[in-house]
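Deliverable D5.2: sample structural annotation.
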Amino acid sequence: MQIRCWLALGCALVPAWVAAQTAPLPLSHEDARAQRERGKAMKDAADLRYEAEKAECQRQVIAFNCMSSAKERRTHAVREAEALEREGRAAEREAKKRDTEAKAARRAAEAPGREAKQQADVQHFREHEAMRAEERESSRAAEAAKLETRRPKLAAERAAQQKRAEQQRRDEAQRAAKAPENAKKKSDREKQHAERVKKIDERAKNYADLLKRREAEAAAKKAADAAAAEKQ
């Protein structure tokens, strides 16, 4: 049963190899790799089939020509598989070579376009930079013109600021010069205010003393009148 399975696998792989032999060349890189892999699979299948047939031959009581037939089938299958692998590897190399040549040809064909694009990009960059430089120059000229128109106004503002600063310094100098006189006047005012407060306090005290005396006199008079009324 096991031998029949391996024979079926080998029979399934052989038509694929035959189809690869009759397929039109050149093969693509993918087809060449697939062919090489099919050859390896066929060789692995041949080895497995041989091991199974060898075990089957060893179990037979009479195995006349069994091992030699198994070896011959394995040798034939391995040769076919190795041939398929070699052709697959050769096709892969050829496909890689064609791919390399195609890429080189494509690069050579695209070279004029790339060079033209690079030149166009360089020209565009130069034009862009020239436009930016012109814009910067125009902006600087506009700022300079704007500054020139504002120059008289700025000069007038600076002159006004200097005038105010001079007036402030003169005012401060005058205040400093009048400071002693102002301090004396302030001191005199404070002294006069203190004397007025003192006089007010003295008058208030005298008035309070007067009220006390009057109250005492009124009380004494009231007591005297009361004593005189008792004597009567």
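Annotation notes: Confidence is low (pLDDT under 50) at residues 1-23. The CA atoms of residues 220 and 226 lie 10 Å apart.
The annotation will be released with the project's public dataset once the embargo ends.
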